[in-house]
Amino acid sequence: MQPVELLIEEEIWPYDLPIELIKEPTEPVRFGCLYSAYHKDSPFQSIISVFYAKVKLKGEWIYLGARNTWSKKYMTLLQVYHLIKSDVFKTETDTLQAIEDDKEAKKFKAKHFCYATFSGKFFKRNEDDILNHSRLICIDLDKLGGELYWIRETVNRDPLTLMSFISPSGTGLKVIYQIDPGKHSQATYYQYLSEYLSKLCSLPKQSIDESCKDVSRACFLPCDPSAYLNLDLV
């Protein structure tokens, strides 16, 4: 039996919003932080992989979700930020948040959501198939409940935060940081940042997902119009 990736016909953008609408302009506005965000050395120009939930297989569009480790588009962090703020994934996000059963919600998310590998550009989602490290790490804060919005404000005020957005479930927070993989391992940065966030937000360590230390960690992409970008870092 052929692997799924060999049967996928095309690596094309399968969603309603044309990918051209979230590309950076060729002549960005030349003032302040906005121009700096488009500079080639900006962390917002780091290249990451976005893997499609929906792919064309044997002539039909089907949802593979997290099972798709092959069909993807390389995007900058800034593009992914605009993608999350748009309504491209609004239907999936609203549907997920309306599912009350935890098991059903988990199954729906794994099948219907695109995901990104924030720590790098991958040929295939596998640690051995990384092409370039993005110098980014995504820390996942889970099940924050009624504390979510207070924690988000605390995180967004912190000068180390590069980007943040609410998780697809609406109960957690994803926080993006810059790292230097030439100095320390991903696991070392995870350990430091998890302790840092735990103290910053008065969180128990179990609220921070340990799998964030994996370079090929998949992060599902929601619709979050309130996603935050720290332009002061550029």
TrEMBL record:
It holds the Pfam family BT4734-like_N. Residues 109-228 form the BT4734-like N-terminal domain. InterPro entries: BT4734-like_N (IPR014907). It comes from the Bacteria. This is BT4734-like N-terminal domain-containing protein.
